[in-house]
Amino acid sequence: MATRNGGPDPDGNPRLRLAIQNAKGANIPKDTIVRNIEKASGLGGEAYVEPTYEGYAPFGIAVFVECATDNLNRTVQDVRMVFNKFGGNLGTNGSLSFVFDRMGVFEIAQGNLNEDDFTMEMIDSNASEVELNEGVFTVLLPFESFGLLQRKLEIMGIEAENASIQSIPKERTTLDLESAKKVMKLIEMLEDLDDVQQVYHNLEITEELANEL
Hints:
By secondary structure, this protein is an alpha+beta fold. It has eight helices and eight strands.
């Protein structure tokens, strides 16, 4: 999809560069990456689009769904069915703009990097949060600064293990265990749909809920 939308040259296609970077991080062989780029550069084949859907699960939990599909009618029907089945409501695009921030998220192995020096470099590139946990830096920054940080890492000779654009909730909502489990059923059902790529929500995953899951 990145190749079809922006061309096969990763130097001029930031999204393709990101896809290649994440593929390498997942240990996908180089020849497989090249073959898929070449395939996507040709004519014909399926044309995919990337719709997003926004709505509320029970108890006011906000849910943001990212999809990739070659059939919009099928996808929206499937997503709406899940919301309705579990007592949620599918809303209009943009209705959750006050709930989530679109953020760039980079995961970078610490290796020989000095924590203080690296953190300062990231802050200079507009990072809003830098955390080090079990030898991996997680860097969050505004969506608009995503490309800036990509270039900064390239200059530093650092390759991220993973980089993505995510919808990060500004605040999370805590529910009692039984209510939270009902919300998670809706979220899990959405995640099981073939066309769904990612589901974001603002439910607080408490230790009690995590143990249940």
